[in-house]
From TrEMBL:
Keywords: ATP-binding, Nucleotide-binding. Residues 10-151 form the PIN domain. One of its GO terms (molecular function) is ATP binding. In the N-terminal section; belongs to the PINc/VapC protein family. Pfam families: PhoH, PIN_4. GO terms for cellular component: cytosol. It comes from endosymbiont of Ridgeia piscesae. SMART domains: PINc. CDD domains: PIN_VapC_PhoHL-ATPase (cd09883). Coiled coil: none annotated. This is PhoH-like ATPase.
Length: 470
């Protein structure tokens, strides 16, 4: 972890993977200095080609370095380049007083343990050891997202840390859940401040009191009692809020495309998915909690029955769990089909009509005409108007990628992010640095977004037992 309060001045040696992950890492160390070994520059050069996120980050790092080096003499480079000379959006260099040092000569260590100097990692370690010996008055720290690199550094006596400046939270258990349980005596303490009314068949309450200050817009509230009470925060100002009773989609008469909520969290999810005033919804949950099924049912109801959206667009990150299956033939949609097994499985549930095989085939043809499958690779530069966008497996996205996707939304578009932060397949992403965690935390104060964490699996008793025991 990057610590800013230290007794001795620090020199942070950055591994290549840190800059591949976050180009702005150059400006995240405040008053401390940064050292870039020549091997790091060579690795950046080897990875700059291509259209992947890593290649884009490498090119952005190179642009940052090029701007810092502009009009700098060799003497200035040797003495260190000020990192606060670069103008970045959002005042990213405010408070940055450290300098950037490049390796300008060969550094050799007298460490008794010999390392083969053929690999880039070992070259960086040798350089860090030599730097440590040259600057005994400073704390030299290697920053790497490679666990094995940090293990090797520890074996050599080199302080090593993970780059965690991109972490949204210190612990994923602190992530906003989207719901709050009210105390049993809530109404006893708030009855005097409550104002109730009905509007177009909906029931609202105006509530004031100290508990209200901790609520968020669109947060789901419930009382765990016999008669039950489930509501959603519609507006909040200081210690006063307007809350609305939610619809009960557990009742058979309120089914959504033949689907009913089976628990409280699913009921909250359907209320947010079917609310046209909520433009962004994020659903977290383990396998079998119903994320995809609920989202598809709500999307079909609003696209085919209510005509709120023109079509449904579904996309996901193509990160394989096992070995890659290689290149796939066909169009963009045909290439994405193997990755969309969840979509096909849930469409089977939603197309169980009484018209037999012919009726089912007709329904499937109708649905396929209104559901589009797109790859994330072709989202840049697009604007989606009046679309219902489902972003599956969003935990595998970086914060930058998820920002790129959400900013594609035009007027009348709704985006639903689905994922499980416990199942991340992207290298160097963790539960606390995932784009899904990032967007849940950043959107919780916006009144036109909603979030809920689905807790109970409803797939089968076998799946539930496997989730708990394996």
């Amino acid at each position: 972890m990057i610590k800013t309060s230290r007794q001795k001045p620090c020199i942070f040696v950055l591994d290549t993977n840190v800059l591949m992950h976050d180009p702005s890492a150059l400006f995240r160390f405040q008053e401390h200095d940064i050292f870039l070994p020549m091997t790091v520059l060579e690795e950046l050069d080897r990875n700059k080609r291509g259209m992947s996120e890593v290649a884009r980050n490498v090119r952005q790092t190179s642009r940052f370095l090029d701007e810092l080096l502009t009009d700098a003499s060799h003497a200035q480079i040797t003495s260190g380049l000020p990192l606060n000379n670069l103008e970045l959006s959002g005042n990213a260099t405010v408070g940055v007083t450290g300098k950037l040092f490049f390796q300008t000569r060969q550094l050799l260590s007298d460490h008794p343990l010999a390392l083969p100097d053929t690999s880039a990692d070992n070259t960086i370690l040798i350089t860090t050891l030599a730097l440590q010996e040259e600057h005994p008055d400073c704390t030299v720290i290697l920053v790497s997202k490679d666990i094995n690199m940090r293990i090797k550094a520890a074996a050599l006596g080199v302080p090593a840390e993970d780059y965690s400046n991109d972490q949204v939270l210190d612990d994923v258990s602190l992530l906003y859940s989207g719901e709050a349980q009210l105390p049993d005596d809530f109404w006893d303490h708030h009855t005097k401040e409550v104002e109730a009314w009905q509007e177009e068949g909906r029931t609202f309450y105006r509530v004031a009191g100290p508990d209200v200050a901790a609520w968020y817009p669109s947060q789901c509230l419930f009382l765990d009692c016999d008669h039950g009470f489930e509501a959603i925060v519609r507006r909040k100002e200081g210690e006063e809020a307007i809350i609305e009773l939610v619809n009960d989609y557990r009742a058979q008469k309120h089914s959504v495309w033949g689907i009913n909520a089976r628990n409280r969290e699913q009921n909250f999810a359907l209320n947010m998915l079917l609310d046209p005033e909520i433009d962004f919804v994020s659903l977290l949950g383990t396998a079998g909690t119903g994320k995809t099924l609920l989202t598809l049912a709500a999307g079909l109801a609003q696209t085919l029955d209510q005509n709120l959206y023109r079509e449904i667009i579904m996309t996901r990150v193509t990160v394989p769990v096992g070995e890659d299956i290689g290149f796939l033939p066909g169009t963009e949609e045909e290439k994405m089909t193997p990755w969309m097994g969840a979509l096909m499985d849930n469409l089977e549930v939603l197309t169980q009509t009484e018209g037999g095989d012919w009726g089912r085939a007709a329904t499937e043809d109708l649905l396929r005409s209104r559901i589009r499958i797109h790859s994330l690779n072709f989202m840049r530069g697009r604007t989606f108007l009046n679309k219902y966008i489902i972003l599956d497996e969003a935990q595998n996205l970086t914060p930058k990628q998820i920002k790129t996707l959400i900013t594609r939304a035009g007027p009348g578009t709704k985006i639903v992010c689905l994922g499980n932060v416990a199942q991340i397949d992207t290298p160097y992403l963790t539960e606390t640095s995932s784009g899904l965690t990032y967007v849940v935390d950043r959107f919780k104060d916006w009144p036109h977004s909603g979030h809920i964490t689905l807790l109970r699996g409803e797939r089968s008793r076998l799946a539930d037992f496997a989730s708990e025991s394996l």
